[in-house]
Amino acid sequence: MKRWSLPLVLAALAVVAHAAPVRLDDSLTHTVPPNVQMQWRMLPPSAGATGSMEAWVRVNVRLDTAPHAGRTGRVYMVLAQDSTSLVEASWTSQGRLLAGRVVSGERTLVYSGTLPAALADQLALRLRASPDWDRQNRRLNFHFELETP
């Protein structure tokens, strides 16, 4: 019979305890207006750059967390990497989700605690992109992930 050392067993349990993030159903989330156009934003000369592209949009967030209701977890907003520009999103919320900031290719915490059957909030979201934003019609890919202990 093979004997396992206690540190090895504890390390294996720690790996199992941190499951991979689960993508949440956000199919009822929508923006108001549904399409938004980026506008040129001049920066003062002291900022060291000439300007950037900017847009404001409201996002009505509704996340289906029913399969995880009653469990403790952390919900993250993810902004997929943009193919050409660095995009930054920053927002305020009405209080259910955390206000924050995320840059393309990253994620940020928007909720931590006991999960209800659904998480809903309205975000006032500001999008900023570098001046190389090259076309009017582009889709930004946001989604939400859940991690549970």
Main β-sheet, in a few words?
6 strands, antiparallel
* Percentage of residues in helical conformation: under 10%
User: What is the N-to-C succession of helices and strands?
Assistant: HEEEEEEEEEE
Beta-strand portion reads over 45%
Structural class: mainly beta
Output mean pLDDT: 83
Low-confidence stretches: 6-16
- Rg over C-alpha atoms, rounded to the nearest angstrom: 19 Å
Task: Give the end-to-end Cα distance, rounded to a whole number of Å.
Answer: 32 Å
Number of strands: 10
So what's the overall shape?
A: elongated
Integer count of domains: 1
Helix segment count?
1
If you had to describe this structure to a student in words, what would you say it looks like?
With 149 residues, the protein is mainly β. The chain has one domain. Helices cover 8% and strands 46% of the residues. It has one helix at residues 6-17; strands spanning 22-23, 30-32, 39-42, 51-64, 72-79, 87-92, 100-103, 106-114, 118-129, 142-147. Strands 2, 3, 4, 6, 7 and 9 form a 6-stranded antiparallel β-sheet that branches. A hairpin with a 7-residue loop joins strand 6 and strand 7. The longest helix has 12 residues, at 6-17. Mean pLDDT is 83; it is low at 6-16.
Question: What is this structure, in a nutshell?
Answer:
The chain has 149 residues and is mainly beta. The radius of gyration is 19 Å and the shape is elongated.
Characteristic terms for this protein:
149 residues, mainly beta, 6-stranded antiparallel beta sheet, 1 helix, 10 strands, 8% helix, 46% strand, elongated
